[in-house]
Design goal:
This protein is an alpha+beta fold. It is built from ten helices and nine strands.
């Protein structure tokens, strides 16, 4: 038994020696590409709190690598590479929505020089942010009572410029009156989506991609399908008011939460404004990314 273990260790060492002896530029490129693939898949799993899946993914990769070292005939390097690609592809297919987001986030819209400070951010007080939250909630509640259809997208700058260019650029301060005015029936922009970024209404009347999934309730109209569609491909949150029922919906990553109360709306908006922002300092100031 001891002799068998020693032989296996010697075979493993010889395999490593042979690997470095045959090492070439092509091997370096393969290792780099595999590293990028490992990093990307792990990043997707980590961001979605899929810890168990990430551990399983790495366990399969490590076990496959050890087997290819100890038994190169049965588990060759070519077979291991195919194995890694299949396992990684399976993980990415499971999180295809998040993959779409990453691809769309590459096409971030260009910042306007006049709306961007030298540091790329703008300072606002806690009171300013709370006022924005309050105005959005009041507008959504008023439109719900009057059954005025509305679609508001809370963007972090990850929307492609095609979406913004499909509407009318406003770059206006958030106010309850302006939000309700944009979605007033028969107004020129009421059928499109309003894009809010930070403390500004960036654009209105924008056209969004519709979800292709058919598992949602039949009462979901174009606004709901557009709200779901944009959250499937971009890192945004959508607020929808149904024109038929007045029901308010919060949509995140394709998941729809209907009938949210004031607390849930407030939490969703505070998560949007404060999630990635530093805590206010002694002067009660924060930095809102533009």
């Amino acid at each position: 038994m001891q002799l068998l273990v020693i032989n296996e260790i010697d075979a493993f060492i010889n395999t490593i020696r042979q690997f470095f002896a045959d090492f070439s530029f092509i091997h370096a490129v393969e290792i780099f590409l595999l590293f990028v693939l490992f990093y990307y898949v792990s990043k997707i799993l980590r961001e979605n709190e899929a810890t168990k899946l990430m551990l399983l993914y790495w366990a399969l990769i490590v076990v496959g690598g050890v087997m290819s070292c100890f038994d190169s005939k049965l588990f060759s390097s070519e077979f291991y590479l195919a194995f890694v690609l299949v396992v990684s592809a399976f993980m990415l297919i499971m999180f295809n929505v998040e993959v779409k987001k990453t691809l769309w986030d590459v096409h971030k819209s260009k910042e306007r020089p006049e709306t961007k400070s030298s540091s790329g951010s703008e300072s606002h007080s806690v009171e300013d942010v709370e006022r924005c939250i309050s105005d959005i909630i009041k507008a959504v509640q008023n439109m719900s009572k009057s059954k005025t259809g509305a679609l508001i997208v809370l963007s972090k700058g990850s929307l492609p410029k095609q979406v913004l260019q499909s509407g009318v650029t406003l770059e206006a301060d958030i106010s309850m009156q302006l939000i309700e005015g944009v979605f007033f029936p028969n107004s020129p922009l009421h059928d499109g989506a309003m894009i809010i970024r930070g403390h500004k209404i960036q654009a209105a009347g924008c056209f969004l991609p519709l979800t292709q999934k058919t598992s949602y309730p039949k009462e979901f109209g174009t606004r709901h399908r557009a709200g779901i569609g944009i959250t499937e491909v971009a890192n945004v949150v959508a607020l929808v008011v149904s024109e038929e029922t007045g029901i308010i919906s919060i949509i995140k990553q394709g998941n729809v939460e209907r009938f949210p109360d004031v607390e849930r709306l407030t939490k969703a908006l505070r998560d949007y404004y404060w999630q990635e922002l530093p805590l206010p300092d002694k002067r009660n100031r924060v930095v809102i990314n533009k």
